[in-house]
Design brief:
The complex is a heterodimer of chains A (271) and B (215). With 271 residues, chain A is mainly α. Helix content of chain A is 70%, strand content 0%. In chain A, helix 1 runs antiparallel to helix 2. Chain A starts with a helix and ends in a 32-residue tail after the last helix. A four-stranded mixed sheet of chain B has the order 8-1-10-9. A two-stranded antiparallel sheet of chain B has the order 2-3. The longest helix of chain B has 10 residues. The chains are: A mainly alpha (271), B alpha+beta (215).
Chain lengths: 271, 215
């Protein structure tokens, strides 16, 4: 949730503030969100004081890769923000996108949970992170009276893209015969997500264009887009994460062709 | 090269759970943790209903998703295909638990014993504080295999070198051996019977084969 919003914020603040750097406070907000998310993970692990072990397996583990990128992200963002360096903040934005991608791939690698291993989850998580980041930037710039129409246009495009990917994700789950509990959880969420995550943000943006006095409309658009993304991820991780269970496989006859153990040592880097 | 696998004959398994008890006793797993368990599966529609018993646990896959996702390299794989966990490296993130398609991994954060606060004799002998807060699962009794092979014994043939669940099976439904040896018990069983691997479509290449001559 927070890591996705924070990394999305890093990406979008670089884009929306170009060619200048975004205000320093936004960089701190982004780092606070990413840091808070990582802190929550640290509280959850069984042996927290072994946290440095998380960096041991970059060859195949997306968790290691996320942690590694996170370290660089913090350093570059802090340095770029304090030095008001456009180059460094652009690099931070790229790192933010990579961090966001790593989060999505962490989910996809979880082969035990059909809702997470569905490939469309990668664009879904990425899109939602970008929408959430844009929402925060737009609200901040609106408070500074610095919102340009193209920013709101980009926000609307991302909101539409997120809904489209969400629908594609749900269809993919139905095609892959995801567990009934997963499908039920998402069916229950869909109406709420459609209204709060798509319809209301766009309506409020349109309202802000049409009614110049509707100064709160942009804030509402941002809040709904942001919170709906968090809600979607909450349902994805907590409510829809049914395991696929056990099953009977296809019967075969004759000596099986045995695959050799792949083993960890000497594994090439795998994407 | 050696590759240890287990076979479970679904036409023989009677669901007695002796393997479950043997595993629990041998490894002193905490309450509610069962590295080896047997599912009671009803199939078909009334009146053509069938019941089978299906031993499950870690499948010791040739391409284990748990190993790929592990950030600390705690989950590793031996040359003989047995997937291991180094409790001293594991950070207890639980990523392997969601990566496993077979629900075979567990994490216990505090010491619990079968009969209250005091451990039984076996639990006292086998309790490992290093297993708290980290991932744990079936090991194919790798310690028994290693000790047995060091003495020149054959896993799957000599009980001292064979997993406890296989030794205990009253119906000889569970068998264990080297699939790379075409004359081993498991190889011959697979040549003579129909079989399947669970969730084959995920590409994990399990080291656990279910024999089932469906009627």
């Amino acid at each position: 949730m927070f890591g996705g919003s924070g990394s999305g914020l890093l990406v979008m603040m670089a884009i929306l503030a170009a060619p200048r750097t975004a205000p320093l406070v936004l960089a701190f907000v982004a780092l606070a969100l990413v840091g808070f998310g990582l802190l929550m993970v640290w509280f959850e692990i069984g042996r927290p004081w072994r946290f440095l072990h998380v960096f041991f397996h970059p060859q195949t583990s997306w968790m290691t890769r996320e942690g590694s990128v996170g370290i660089v992200l913090f350093v570059v963002t802090l340095a770029g923000g304090l030095m008001h360096s456009v180059t460094m903040m652009s690099f931070a934005a790229i790192l933010g996108l990579v961090f966001l991608y790593c989060q999505a791939r962490i989910l996809k690698a979880a082969a035990g949970i059909p809702a997470w291993r569905e490939p469309v989850i990668v664009p879904l998580i990425t899109a939602s992170g970008l929408v959430e980041g844009t929402a925060i930037v737009v609200m901040f710039f609106h408070a500074m009276n610095a919102t340009a129409p193209w920013m709101l246009g980009l926000f609307v495009i991302l909101v539409i893209a997120r809904l489209w990917i969400w629908c594609a994700y749900r269809n993919a789950l139905v095609r892959s015969k995801a567990p009934a509990g997963t499908l039920r959880a998402f069916t229950k969420l869909h109406r709420e997500f459609f209204i709060a995550g798509f319809l209301l943000p766009i309506l409020f943006v349109l309202t802000s264009f049409v009614l110049e006095l509707a100064i709160l409309a942009t804030y509402f658009a941002g809040v709904f887009a942001l919170v709906s993304g968090w809600r979607m991820k909450y349902v994805l991780v907590v409510k829809a994460s049914f395991k696929q269970g056990y099953g009977i496989g296809k019967l075969r006859r004759g000596r099986p062709v045995v695959k050799s153990p792949v083993r960890r040592e000497g594994d090439p880097i795998q994407f | 090269m050696t590759r240890y696998v287990m076979t479970a004959d679904l036409n023989r398994c009677v669901g007695c759970q002796t393997c479950t008890a043997a595993c629990k006793h041998t490894n002193a797993t905490p309450p509610e943790i069962q590295w080896r368990k047997v599912l009671d599966v009803e199939m078909g529609e009334f009146p053509n209903v069938e019941r089978i018993f299906m031993p499950v646990g870690c499948q010791h896959c040739a391409d284990p998703p748990c190993m790929h996702v592990c950030p600390s390299t705690a989950t590793a794989q031996r040359d003989d295909g047995i997937v291991t966990i180094d409790y001293d490296l594991c950070i207890g993130c639980g990523y392997c638990m969601v990566a496993c398609p077979y629900d075979a991994r567990y994490k216990v954060d505090e010491a619990r014993f079968a009969y209250g606060k005091k451990p039984s004799a076996t639990e006292a002998l086998r309790f490992d504080e290093g297993s708290l807060g980290v991932a744990q699962k079936c090991t194919f009794c790798a310690d028994r295999i290693d000790e047995g092979t060091a003495k020149g014994l054959t896993p799957g043939v000599d009980p001292e070198a064979t997993p406890a669940c296989v030794n205990s099976c009253i119906a000889n439904a569970l068998q264990f051996g080297d699939i790379e040896d075409e004359h081993s018990n498991v190889s011959e069983l697979l040549a003579e019977n129909a079989y399947f691997q669970m969730h084959e479509e995920l590409g994990t290449e399990t080291g656990f084969y279910y024999l089932w001559n469906e009627k």
